[in-house]
Here is the input.
Amino acid sequence: MKKIIVVLDGLRFRQNAVDYAIAITKSEKSHLVGIFLEDFSYRSYGLYELVDETGAVTDKRIATLSEHDKNLRDSAVARFEESCQRAGLNYSVHRNTNIAIEELLHESIYADLLVIDSHESFTRSQEEAPSRFIRHLLADAACPVLMVPNSYQPIGKIVFLFDSTPASVQAVRMFDYLLPGMKHLPAEVIAVKSAHEDFHLPDGKLMKEFMKRHFPDAHYNVLKGIPEDEIVQQINEMRGNVLIVLGAYTRSGLSRWLNPSMADTLVEGTSAPLFIAHSK
Here is the structure.
């Protein structure tokens, strides 16, 4: 039984992340852990809200706002538990109160897959997705990460982004290992080459031999142009909810084009969930 963790902000509860995590957990007959990051420095209110009508900051005002946050977080945990119970899952809850990113990276060491909303930030300020929190997570997570969009839809197709680097092949390997319940879905391998190159798949013989053992019915699509532009256009032309599998954020250097800008572009330009795996 695999361990899947879903990362949740009790002050801004995202049911979509729970729904994706539950669907995967049920399909793979896994154990789901709700990770609630309750960083002591993160609150729903700003300093200006601590000032009461007399212009003073009082213990009563602080206690009232703190109690409001506690109630929000307790309610979020209850919603997660209710969702898991309705789905008939084995589940547990971790409520971590130290620095959010450090707690999550530590949790990722002991997880098989981490699910998180692609717009999660754990800050009151507005940030463009992916946030600094997400970037840090993708760079240092010890397990594959599934970033999900803001509404749940069943997965209808798998797209593997391939550029012949170890990271892109490792992503296929990890996806197959973690989510064998999706092997029945249509699969497509997409590569992008420059305008002066031919249309042959990079390392085609080896890659097709490898894919035959993992996703034997996969189709292959070699595009030409700028990877970010071509891939976003291709994904947006596909019907249904497409899950994109890519390798990125390696410690020893970034893949030729499966890099942070590619993840940024996919989050900004598509509504597709992203499965991202390291090749460390």
